[in-house]
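User: I'm putting together notes for a lab meeting next week and I want to include a structural view of one of the chains we've been expressing. I don't have a solved structure, so I'd like a prediction I can at least talk through. The sequence is below, exactly as it appears in our construct file.
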Amino acid sequence: MENSVNSVGTAAMLLAMTQTLRDEELAKQMVSKNGFRAAVTEVGGKSNFAEFNEKVNRSLIGAALNSKLIEKSAGNVHALLHAAEEAKQGMLFSMVSSSSLALKLAVVRDDTWIAVAIFGKSAVHYMTNHDRAGLGIMHI
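Assistant: Thanks for the context. Below is the predicted structure for the 140-residue chain, given as structure tokens.
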């Protein structure tokens, strides 16, 4: 599997799809062995469109800054948010006005690219829960 983690996008999606802390740690080790740096965070709760955007952006910026994936500069934050906007498109496709969310977010970068992957469940009602995924990549 280690050879499959050959891009920031693949690495980010792999991390976002881990279901346990043990799997997340193993995936982080694989990602690191391939020369990438990564951060993982989570977002959940009942959200409308505006709350969803705010929660995801705040969580991603915090995780990326705290793990020193990006610097606190306009260029770095812009690249992160651009990748996040692309990733959110996969999550927002046909999302109704208010949904329950349980999402895992991963940010992975190398020297020139940054990727944001979002994977998780969303539903209007608990009986309609289903997986969603999104991926965005931007030059940094």
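A couple of points you could mention at the meeting. The domain at 2-139 is CATH 3.40.1510.10 (Hut operon positive regulatory protein HutP). The chain has one domain: 2-139.

User: Perfect, that's what I needed.
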